[in-house]
Amino acid sequence: MSIKNYITKSEQITWNPLIENNIHYQGVFVKSLHFDKATQRSKAILLKFEKGASYPYHSHPAGEEVFVLNGNCEIFGETLEQGDYLYTPPNGKHSVKTQHGCVLFLSVPEEVVLIKNENN
């Protein structure tokens, strides 16, 4: 085993528009850090939100971890700033929005589920 096979050089990856289930989230960009071949999805990602961008209300069946690398965002009425960490427990629900932009690291063990009625 070579550790080189497990290192991702994130600066060498291009930011791609976030498109899920044919929905393009304007102003949100993604870099995959760890793609799980067994589940055919990225479980560790970077998300970049431009000023005023948002991601809709959703749940996390297996939870989520978020670390703010740059800027700030609002999640469930709380402002997270650079250096802040948020653990969302399984089945936790929230949306994400930012006024000024941000870059987030996310660990998402399972696919999120969008929720039509936002009650956050």
From TrEMBL:
Superkingdom, natural source: Bacteria
Span of the signal peptide: none
Gene3D superfamilies the record matches: Jelly Rolls
One family name in Pfam for this protein: Cupin_7
ChrR-like cupin domain boundaries: 7-106
Protein name: ChrR-like protein with cupin domain
